[in-house]
Design a protein that fits this description.
This protein is α/β, with parallel strands linked by helices and 295 residues long. The protein is 35% helix and 21% strand. The chain contains ten helices and 13 strands. A five-stranded mixed β-sheet has the order 8-9-7-12-13. It has a three-stranded mixed β-sheet with strand order 1-2-3. A three-stranded mixed β-sheet has the order 4-5-6. A hairpin with a 2-residue loop joins strand 5 and strand 6. Helix 4 packs across helix 5 and helix 6 crosses helix 10. 33% of the residues are buried.
């Protein structure tokens, strides 16, 4: 995945904190940039942006509008990590720092442009490519992740009965609730395709499964009609590092979790594990009770 250093701007324009707001605005206009580094005696105090200057009297000084220190990120971090920090912290730029040395700035606009089609415009969630990349990175680090596929039940019927506008509303609603659930349990949510979503947790499934009943209790209502969903779980079972090709392993986990979510649709508990699936038919020999966290 693309790293922060490939997207950041390394053109760093600085200003003294005691310079006027007018000087700051002129400097931004001259360089066609939206922010300036504020330095005093070689020490970085923060970043002032064009938004900070709006409505401020031009004779005031930059120090008057300077906010707290800007968050930083490693140049080797990937773009999804940068996006997560910006979303969680509500910031529009990050300083790119390596070993205490300032290398550049990553802005929200540059990040959005670089991510391009990587995010689903309807739900705002990252798409399948980021899901696969995240799984690969965890596997490369020796972490055995737990992947949970979330598949809406009877989504085609919902679209047929209530129309695609209602379908879009259901997708946005579940995306919002899955994101909140994932963040609560230190995971990440993705929109895989169509009405399929996925959650990744960087830990064994024995630590994830006890929380899934909470997930299944989430209520999705569209025009007073309840929309259900089914869960398929794969991975998170091994105590040793997975051997072989991380990309192939990631693809295998996605396949098993997806097939398990299909199997789960036929079960009252709405949950199935990857090893219960017959890959050739995506059907279990017989429906049986969910084996629980130790299964």
């Amino acid at each position: 995945m693309v790293q922060v250093k490939e997207v950041m701007t390394s053109i760093l324009v600085t200003i003294d904190p005691w310079s006027s707001v007018r000087e700051a605005a002129n400097l931004m206009a001259r360089h066609k940039i939206g922010s300036l580094l504020v330095l005093e005696d070689g020490t970085l105090l923060g970043v002032v942006t064009s938004r900070d200057l709006r409505g401020v009297h031009p004779n005031r000084v930059v120090m008057d509008v300077l906010r707290g220190p800007t968050l930083s990120i490693s140049p080797k971090a990937n773009l999804l990590e940068a996006h997560t920090i910006m979303q969680q912290q509500g910031v529009e730029r990050l300083l790119v720092v390596e070993e205490g040395r300032l290398l550049g700035i990553l802005t929200k606009r540059a990040l959005a442009f670089a991510l391009g089609q990587g995010f689903d415009p309807l739900t705002g969630l990252p798409r399948a490519d980021f899901l696969r990349g995240h799984l690969e990175r965890l596997l490369e680090k020796g972490i055995d992740p737990t992947l949970v596929f979330v598949d809406l039940d009877d989504f085609g019927l919902l679209n047929k009965e209530l129309g695609h506008t209602a379908g879009d509303q259901a997708l946005r609603e579940i995306a919002s609730k899955l994101t909140a659930f994932a963040q609560k349990h230190r995971g990440e949510a993705y929109r895989y395709a169509g009405d399929e979503f996925a959650l990744i947790f960087p830990r064994p499934r024995t630590q994830v499964l006890p929380h899934l009943p909470e997930l299944l209790k989430l209520t999705i209502l569209v025009e007073e009609k309840r929309v259900g969903f089914s869960l398929g779980v794969a991975g998170g079972r091994r105590r040793r590092k997975r051997l072989g090709n991380p990309r192939a392993t990631a693809d295998d986990l996605i396949r098993m979790a997806s097939l398990a979510s299909t199997l789960a649709k036929s079960r009252p508990e709405k949950l199935a594990l990857g090893e219960e699936v017959n890959p050739a038919s995506a059907q279990a020999p017989t429906a049986k009770p969910f084996p629980g966290p130790g299964g």
